[in-house]
């Protein structure tokens, strides 16, 4: 793979990680709002509002914690940081279990970032040319 091709793939991969994990974050926010809303509609006598708010807070917080590494990995890839490559590889491996879209993103992440030229690309060196 040439340096130009690798640069294009890394840029696309960075944006895909940011987009997919931002969607994950938005879903977490909507689940939080939905659960708190259900609790409020149950009324104050049922005690459901507190329970549903706690569950909503837990689920929303969990989705935030799960989305942050992917967002950071995408940022690191776009900024061509070596830690971004490592984090993206870890997130990509974990995405393999998120069928079907996460699996596709995980496979693409591994294919791009495990190229021989990717090590030099992220270390700021000129990649070696292959024949």
How would you characterize the overall build of this protein?
By secondary structure, the chain is mainly alpha-helical. It contains 5 helices and no strands. Helix 1 packs antiparallel against helix 2 and helix 1 runs antiparallel to helix 4. The longest helix has about 40 residues. It starts with a helix and ends in a 9-residue tail after the last helix. The model has no long low-confidence stretch (mean pLDDT about 90).
In total, the number of strands is: 0
Order of helices and strands: HHHHH
What percent strand? under 5%
Contiguous helical run count: 5
Radius of gyration: 19 Å
Search tags:
single chain, 131 residues, mainly alpha, 5 helices
Topology, element by element:
Blueprint: H1 3-42, H2 48-78, H3 82-95, H4 101-113, H5 116-122
Helix pairs in contact: 1-2, 1-4, 2-3, 3-4
Brief characterization of the structure:
With 131 residues, this protein is mostly helical.
